[in-house]
Design brief:
The structure is a single chain. The protein is an all-alpha fold and about 100 residues long. The protein has two helices and no strands. It has one domain. The longest helix is centred in the middle third of the chain and has 84 residues. The chain is rod-shaped, with a radius of gyration of 42 Å. This is Beta-1,3-n-acetylglucosaminyltransferase,putati ve. Keywords: Coiled coil.
């Protein structure tokens, strides 16, 4: 009984009826859900773009690392070769001195 009286009082206080309010709430809810869905889609696209760019950057850095490793290995071989040449030269000079002393 109290509920009916309250509903009657509320319906008198507000010019629109509860069905209109409910319909408006439903429409607003649909709009809100659509906005949330669009936001989610936008965020997923942005995350995918960031992941793609990150993977690209990682790939570029891996290539740079490989190039640097190759350059270091080439430099190491060059230094080893020069060291061996120097050792051979020193050994040859030492041998020549020993031979010339005798």
């Amino acid at each position: 009984m109290h509920d009916i009286k309250l509903k009657v009082e509320l319906s008198l206080m507000f010019p629109c009826n509860f069905a209109e309010i409910t319909n408006q709430i439903d429409r607003d809810n649909v709009k809100f859900n659509s906005a949330v869905q669009r936001l989610e889609e936008t965020l997923y696209k942005q995350i995918a773009d960031v992941e793609r760019r990150l993977q690209q950057k990682i790939s570029e850095l891996q290539n740079e690392i490989q190039v640097s490793i190759q350059q270091c290995q080439d430099e190491k071989r060059s230094l080893e070769s020069r060291l061996l040449d120097s050792i051979h030269t020193i050994a040859a000079n030492l041998e020549n001195r020993i031979v010339s002393i005798n």
